[in-house]
Prior knowledge:
By secondary structure, the protein is mostly beta strands. It has 2 helices and 22 strands. The strands form 7 sheets. Strands 13, 18, 19 and 20 form a 4-stranded antiparallel sheet that branches. A hairpin with a 2-residue loop joins strand 8 (about 190-210) and strand 9 (about 210-225). It is elongated, with a radius of gyration of 32 Å.
Amino acid sequence: MELELDRTQLSGYETMLDTTVCQEETMEMIVPDACPDILRICDTEGTACLKSKESQEGRVELTGTARAAVLYLPDGTEGMRRLEVAIPFSCSAEGAQVTSGCTVIACPWIQAAETRLLNPRKVLVRIQIAVSVQVYAPVSEELCAGVSEPESAGVEQLVEPCQLYQVSAVQEKPFTFADDVMISGGKPEAEELLKSRVSLRCNESKVIGSKLIFKGEAMLQLLYRAAEGALCTTDYVLPFSQIMEVNGVGEDCDCEVQVVLTDTECRLDGSDGRTISVALGLLAQATVWETRSLELLTDLYSTAYQLEADTRPCSLKQLADRGIKNQTVREIIETGMQAKSVSDTYVRMGPVTQRREGERLELSVEANVTILYQAEDDTLSAVSRTLRVPCTLDVGEGAECACRCGVPGEIFAVPSSSGIEVRFQVDIQYLAYTRRQMISVSGVHLDENGVRDTAGKPSIVLRMVAGGERLWDIAKAYGTTAQDILQANDLSEDALPAGQLLLIPRKR
């Protein structure tokens, strides 16, 4: 006879792939006829825009566009000039468990960009693109919490409380932002917009009912050329707020929303030199984690009948720690010549690498710092350095960790006697979890004709407790109950000291 079991249905998402794809793209470009010849390349900065992401059997395909601004000094005229180049990219990530039904979270960024002058009218632009990729597959699992009517068959069951930390929802929402921003009256008017930089940050997210509400900021930094060739910067904070539909998620959950660019355009309004039109295409990608408490039937037996239990292994993901580590970077960047002023500074981050040292996890990320500055002889130059940013997490041995990083605030750069002193903060966001391996009962067959035979066996057994032995194992071995053993020995707890003699009454 099959015993009826109380079952719990678990639905969520399992991570099939978590990786970072790096790829280099190059493009040769002819200087437009309307632009002067190039004397010297000063700087190249790029922005990655995601176009599409698709899961297939065994792989993920990603496409997008890398938009780069090449700043150069022209031959024969004064003032910085700009070339604009759009380089399409496509890349893939392979994973044996990836299927066409998976959901993909993808966040592209530019790790490095450079331009080589081939001749005064031709350049070669090289861009290093990185894309962090997480692939989730919907999963549904049935776990047994116990036998429906254990008393009728004399069933004793071992039910263990567990906690499961799982992805309950993966959703996305495209949206746009468009506005006009003004250069303040305290700054000179713009003659040409040289480059724009957009940093996206989600500050707040929460679930109310079936709605995920998230708020964030697009931090816009502009570098422009004013009259007589002066370089000026101006910054804006553009707030956004959106609502995304999520289903089957409790309000007591952890939400992670990553917002990426799908398109970007910043145009200088030629009418006054102070109005800049901003249009951003954005994609919000949300991952919702929940902690679920459950009971799992891991073992059972009957004091009256013979029974057979079907079991299977199960792996329960449990939260070890999650948070943000703030690392302050302060460094002197040597320039080779005395810097008079700094015109622009930006940082591009590499992927986070991990190395295990016992219970400690050593993280490391490379920060590529670029500074555009004016030397004492009034020449414009750029210097780039790669700095290593270390971080240590105490997450326990065996814990797995998912990390990503960014530069959330302002970057400070000032000339010093030996170069340029740069200071900024790197935030490393981490999620550490462990996997608890357990055995779960999946089915029970009870033989109603197989009554336990206790004839000829003593009604009471005297037995010594071995080291590490559980009361449950002793009761199961002798076909009795843990409660009967506790009563016979006047004990109140399950903990048994090694070497103790126990009176073990048999069930009749």
